Amino acid sequence: MDREETSARITALIEPFNKKDVAITDATRFTDDLEFDSLTVMDFVAAIEDEFDIIISMNQQAEIENYGQLVDAVTKLQG
Amino acid sequence: MTDMLDDDMTQAHTDLFSKFDPLIEMRRDLLSTGVTDPFGLVMERVISPTVAICNGRETILLGTYNYMGMTFDPDVIVAGKQALDDFGSGTTGSRVLNGTYAGHKAVEQALCEFYGMDHAMVFSTGYQANLGIISTIAGKGDYIVLDIDSHASIWDGCKMGDAEVVPFKHNDIEAMEKRLRRIPEGAGKLVVLEGVYSMLGDIAPLKEMIAIAKKYGAMVLVDEAHSMGFIGPNGRGVAEEQGCLDDVDFVIGTFSKSVGTVGGFCVSNHPKFEIMRLVCRPYVFTASLPPSVVATACTSIRKLMHAGEKRAHLWENSKTLHKGLRDAGFQIGTEEPQSAIISVIMPDLERGAAMWEALLHEGLYVNLARPPATPANMTLLRCSLCAEHSAAQVQQIIGMFTRAGKATGIIG
What we know:
The complex is a heterodimer.
Chain A: H1 3-14, H2 38-52, H3 58-61, H4 67-77
Helix pairs in contact in A: 1-2, 1-4
Chain B: H1 21-32, E1 43-48, E2 51-54, E3 57-61, H2 74-87, H3 102-115, E4 119-123, H4 126-137, E5 143-147, H5 152-160, E6 164-168, H6 173-182, E7 189-194, E8 196-197, E9 202-203, H7 206-215, E10 219-223, H8 238-241, E11 250-254, E12 264-268, H9 276-279, H10 281-284, H11 291-304, H12 308-328, E13 341-346, H13 349-362, E14 364-365, E15 367-369, E16 379-384, H14 391-407
Domain Carrier (chain A): 4-78
Protein name (chain A): Acyl carrier protein
Pfam families (chain A): PP-binding
């Protein structure tokens, strides 16, 4: 799956968590812009893991701050 | 390379404490309402496992984790005094140097017998037991799969090791299995669970979860801190109660709850377990427990092996309090009482703190638990019952809760 398709699927997954309808770009930050708290992060990560059948460990999550980094990480994790 | 500063120059100073400003502000706001600081209570005198003097007032203790009431057991006290006389006030040394006394070996033997396991290793605190075992056995390239509501000592153990850390939703068997299934083949796997989760007092479906963990080739560590001495036919914990203790690779426990002193431990049947004493840094690089502490722990653990009647009375207390508070209109963390913890859910921190203070004025101490220690950002009044609470005290407690709840408007 290429980056564009991965991004499209993640955009769909983000929607129920994007309570304030923030416009998503690669630079959108999860904590600062989307105001995700730790519980939201857990549910959101679980949704992505299930969608792509991958693991995003806490160690990897620590490196992901914005949307673009997430798409890159998921694209890479799918091998 | 950057140039050194000239003698007459200085750089701007960054206060490393500025990261705590939001918490300092939150505390100031809370205390400015005039409420007593819930995290600054002093026990002026302790009368028994269930009663102390706080602010000059006799107070029933309902938030001490002193589940089996062993802190004033006469045999335990005698053992501690004797050890002080015979071995002195402290060991001043690591377990692997000069800090292993006869008492340390004796308490490890008592633990082996209590759990029916081959090996026991005693740490200076329960926190260090989780920190040490988890960070040492799960290293780089290994995976730790753990419940999201795990205790801070478990999280810190994960952080201190180099393993990949994969949390799953609280007590969600399917979420756990999905994560195990996705771990690359050949990687080492450790599943970390707790018997009783201390915030809401709920238990884990260990039998189902451990069976799945084993199916995927994982090793299993269960923290039974809040169940030891109380849950299971022999007080070995939730895994014993559910008939799956034989499948647990490592049981973590503490002396600071049912045992009634301080210290932590790990028991295991792993044939290579003893190597832990040389490679586990939170075991090696700290002083061992004082002789009086291990002597009291040893005596207490041996008495807990035969505490069936106390266990039965504690269950009665737990059931009575759960029902009494529910009937009074409070929202409780679990539908049914599952442990000796009854957690009362407060609408928010302000009203939780007001209720906590109203209870203190009634003469009742409970724990105020607030985010981030709590799941789902809840504010909780956490009650932990003791086998030494009399039936009359439990009724008194329900009356205090009812009056305080009405005074603060939490119940109608």
